[in-house]
Amino acid sequence: MRENWWKYLLGVWMAVIIVAAFLFTPTAKGLGQTTRVLYFHVPSAWVTTLAFFISAVFSVLYLMRHQLHYDIRAEAAAQIGLIFAILTTVTGSIWAKEIWHSYWNWDPRETSIFMLLLIYAAYFALRSAIEDPEQRARLAAVYSLLAFATVPFLVFVIPRIYDSLHPDPLINPDRKIHMDVRMLRVFLGSFGAFTVLFYWLFTLRVKVLSLEQHVLRKLEE
Amino acid sequence: MWTLLRNSILIFRKDFRLEFRSRFALNAIGLFAVISLSAISFSIGALRVKPPILSALLWVVIFFSAMSGLAHIFVREEEQQTADTLRLLTQPVTVFLGKWLFNVILLLALEIVIVPLFVIFLDVSGINWGTFIPVIILGSVALSTISTIIAAIIAQTSNRGALFAVLTFPLAVPVLRSAIQGSWTALEGGGLTACISDLQILFSFSVVIFTASILLFDFIWRR
Amino acid sequence: MTPTVTRITADGIYKQFHVRRVLKGISFTVEKGQSVVITGPNGSGKSTLIKILSGLLRPSKGTVQYFNGNTPRQPTELLPAIGLVSPYLQLYPDLTAKEHLEFFGKMQGISQPFQKGLQLMTQFGLKGREADFMKTYSSGMLQRMKYVLALLHQPAVLFVDEPSANLDEEGKETVYALIREYKHDHIVILATNEPQEIQLGDIRVDVTAQ
Asked: The pTM is what?
């Protein structure tokens, strides 16, 4: 109980965010009730990016130190990243159906999240094709870093394909925050909640993966 | 430094000799390209296809031809169990350089065959060659750079064939996108200045991935 | 030409494949002028240990250090000091013996590799087959050719995994004589279970030992 206080706090916090997102905040101009998905869609996208970055960091650490617990962390971050990438895609797609009248139309944001999904899929396909844990860790880490090196190009290239209709709610061309104070509060609160949620999921996943490896080793002996 | 370059060239020459004797990769990549081009030409028939589609078709053919042949240079070393022999013989970076050079030249040689066939089969006219050739060359260098490092990875896995395209495609998207855009401009007769940003992306992509590959290749090659 | 190695120490080498532990803490020291023989039943990790010692494989735990006097170095920095003959180190089927000698020799910066290789080929009874492709060689001839290539740069450390694999009586005699002679001035590390070959080693390392 004592060391778990933050998990209870997170539960309450999340509940408050959900209620506030639906009842407390006003809607944005032109978006109507669909504004409310923003409080869940954008933090999901943030967690996806964060997970991708953390996975790359642990990949570097693995290549430097060759200790399998770094690989477990890289894998765990990627798994959670994949889930949040799917959540981002689904919430975004539902929103797009309402506003753009189609679930999918290769908007730059849709294209970039799709590429990220492909990279994650390739990463896990690679992992499943190698049996030896050390070799798997090594090659997966290299692939994840190569992917990391190509992401800036995706960011640069994709927006040139089509003009984006995607709203940019936080920072606009005049570099000021155009957002109702109530909206901003809930929005930032949700960011915080999602980040803590990611941390919690991450530690859980690392524990499970470590235990799996431990059990496999014990079974063998 | 001099030794590194000399050894890279030696590896390149050795691979060149081996590939010409077995002709496996050469046949695979060449026939694949010719067959897919004929298939496209056959299915399009007498339709006059517009430059954006032509350009996309050309790069789809180049991409899949690359996927059919560029992994062989690493896969062969693993299959014939000569990889360890090579590991003991020289520094990892020379292996990457030699094989990278081979793949770049192989893909460029392939285009010497593909591009004329493409022009003939699909009845292309009005190309600005001064734009088209640089786009093709830079696009191929970028594509073979990313393919070479992925080939080194998949050579050490089971299920090599299927994985190569799966792993390469997401990372090659910026290359394909810029190359398609660039050759589209060239097919419409546009000049170099019209696609300078595409060439810049292709060039900087090659430099970034080449550098990353040199840094990461040690970790792939040494078990 | 080849860097000098006066001592090799292996300290607590562990190796694990998937969930299987192959090597459980192998330690030994060998000095120049000595030979090591690695023994153990099939599949117990003899080849794995050779790969780790020669820098082809990274141990899960433990270190291998090469010393020249008291200066330590990693095996990966010492590629030119290592020669290895083993069943998993293959030659290129589509290159000739001469092409092998030239490729290996030039990579290692040896002058006139073909002349030097020819001497070794004569010693191993391969004279007259220089222009033949490796795919036309019999398994015994291939094993002899592996010795020729491993010895081309006169490595300070010679590893031999299964010294007499595929060799006839005459070939075995050549190899035993060579190993006896070579260890005087170098370090020789063998992996074998043949009683005759175990006697070639001054130090015995049992991979199944804890």
From this structure: 0.91
